[in-house]
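Subject: Sanity check before I submit

Could someone independently write out the structure tokens for this chain? I want to compare against mine line by line before I put it in a report. The sequence has 301 residues.
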Amino acid sequence: MLPSVRQMALAILAFAVIPMCFAQRLSSSALSAATDSASTNSSSSRIGVDLEPAAGTPPASAEPSAEGAVRNQRPAYAASRTWLFAENGIGTFVSPLGLGIGAATTLSESLNLRATGNLFGYNVNGVSQGVNYQGDLSFRSVQAGIDWFPWRKSFHLSPGVLFYNQNRITVHGGVAAGESFTVNGATYYSGAADPVTLYGNVNFRRTSPMLTLGWGNWLPRSRAKHFSFPVDIGFAYVGELPLTLTFTGVVCDTPADVNCRSIDSDPTVQQNIAAQRKKYQNDLDYVRFYPIISTGVSYKF
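---
Independent answer below. Compare away.
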């Protein structure tokens, strides 16, 4: 039986609508998938932006949420260290000032404060130009200074001051009766009535500025390092070192006590003694800048 016109129209309409609905469903599914993908990428991009710090931003410490996910970031800054009196140590060294023992403390990352005491004593006996003498060298002093490390490495500059300076040199001597001795090129004989005696001394300034440079740090900045072996080279400006030179007694022209007279009463002898003292004084002027070369060992607590 042939279908009616109405049935044929319904069939044609069904065949036309069904494919269109199917196509629309596919299109909606594709659009939904694309939207989800874009949303995921946007979220990932946003999370990436949140997690990636900008240039110059300090390191961040993560704060987890209750679910274990990172919710926000907080910067973590390192606390600055206080150096004032933070490190302390002791040390010992040798120098032309004697044996030194001292202590040091930090003032800043590039500055140390150092104070030491120096001690030295020495005796010597000898004969010079016919005069038997005994020389005594007695050094007692205290020094304090700043060690500045301009590049925060081993090299340092150390301005300071030498004070409580009791350094001195004394000489005692004499000439046996009938023996000859020479003063400023002139020869005399010690008289038997009052043999010639000699006294001399050199005194240092009580306070003198100092400047040294060197390598090594009494207080190494490395926490693991405790021992150091510093070396310093420089000078202390001691200025003029006044010399006292005195002869007393009786001098003669011959061993047989001919033409004997007191040293104090003979202007010529006095002039020769003054000229000899001046020669010695000129030699001492070379040590206005008293040299300092020191080396030793220190220990940081």
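---
OP: Matches mine. For the report I'm noting this point. The helical segments are 5-51, 267-284.
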